[in-house]
Amino acid sequence: EDQVTQSPEALRLQEGESSSLNCSYTVSGLRGLFWYRQDPGKGPEFLFTLYSAGEEKEKERLKATLTKKESFLHITAPKPEDSATYLCAVQETSGSRLTFGEGTQLTVNP
Amino acid sequence: GAVVSQHPSWVICKSGTSVKIECRSLDFQATTMFWYRQFPKQSLMLMATSNEGSKATYEQGVEKDKFLINHASLTLSTLTVTSAHPEDSSFYICSARDRGGGELFFGEGSRLTVL
């Protein structure tokens, strides 16, 4: 059974204080690892898909990396508007469904 | 990115009534749509997978007679919560994958409150 564990559960940063969120996963065969951002009362917003170990993707202040066991979402010089819950999900090669982690709730204080 | 629209965004109903939630892919054709349920401060729990023109596949523990899913076209899936009870109150989110099998895009969610 696929497992996705995100840490920390919650993270509070000061504006400009860079940090990383972790997503550890166990899957029989990885088709893709996905990062989403979710604001309160909203559906998840797609950020990145990573397909193979060593792959990296960037978007503004966010950078996602992937190894065979985990993914990191690096946030560089965050701003208050980056406050949200960040969700990680994996899709195995044999299926179409995504398995989500519990998310990391990020708060960036001005 | 692709747009998935959900309607209504919130609904309040009396216990025992049925509620229908629509999920539309606006600018792409979705052969597969997924329905999730999310409780406060928890992650998304997959309820069912629906493929256009065929019966939905429900996850273990999800009552198929209570949560009716119809995927009648490549751009529309509906979730009907039948004989709703207060414990059905939750945030329901749909998602859709385009025919190319790429990223999964989510709707804005529908908050159901059953009195």
Output the structural class of chain B: mainly beta
Q: What percent of the residues of chain A sit in helical stretches (DSSP H or I)? A: under 10%
Report Rg of chain A.
13 Å
Mean pLDDT of chain A: 94
Q: Quick one: overall form of chain A?
A: globular
How much strand of chain B?
A: over 45%
User: How many strands appear in the DSSP assignment of chain B?
Assistant: 11
Proportion of helical residues of chain B? under 10%
User: Main β-sheet of chain B, in a few words?
Assistant: 7 strands, mixed
Could you spell the SSE succession of chain B in H and E letters?
EEEEEEEEEEE
Tell me what the structure shows:
The complex is a heterodimer of chains A (110) and B (115). In chain A, strands 2, 4, 5, 9, 10 and 11 form a 6-stranded mixed β-sheet that branches. A 5-stranded antiparallel β-sheet of chain A has the order 1-3-8-7-6, with no helix packed on it. Helices cover 0% and strands 59% of the residues of chain A. Chain A is an all-beta fold. Chain A has no helices and 11 strands. Helix content of chain B is 0%, strand content 56%. Chain B is globular, with a radius of gyration of 13 Å. Classes of the chains: A mainly beta (110), B mainly beta (115).
Give a quick summary of the entry.
The complex is a heterodimer of chains A (110) and B (115). Chain A has 110 residues and is an all-beta fold.
What topology emerges from the helices and strands here?
The complex is a heterodimer of chains A (110) and B (115).
Chain A: E1 3-7, E2 10-14, E3 19-26, E4 30-38, E5 45-50, E6 56-59, E7 62-66, E8 70-75, E9 84-92, E10 99-100, E11 104-109
Parallel strand pairs in A: 2-11
Antiparallel strand pairs in A: 1-3, 3-8, 4-5, 4-9, 6-7, 7-8, 9-10, 9-11
Chain B: E1 4-7, E2 10-13, E3 19-25, E4 30-38, E5 44-51, E6 57-58, E7 67-73, E8 76-81, E9 90-98, E10 104-106, E11 110-114
Parallel strand pairs in B: 2-11
Antiparallel strand pairs in B: 1-3, 3-8, 4-5, 4-9, 5-6, 7-8, 9-10, 9-11
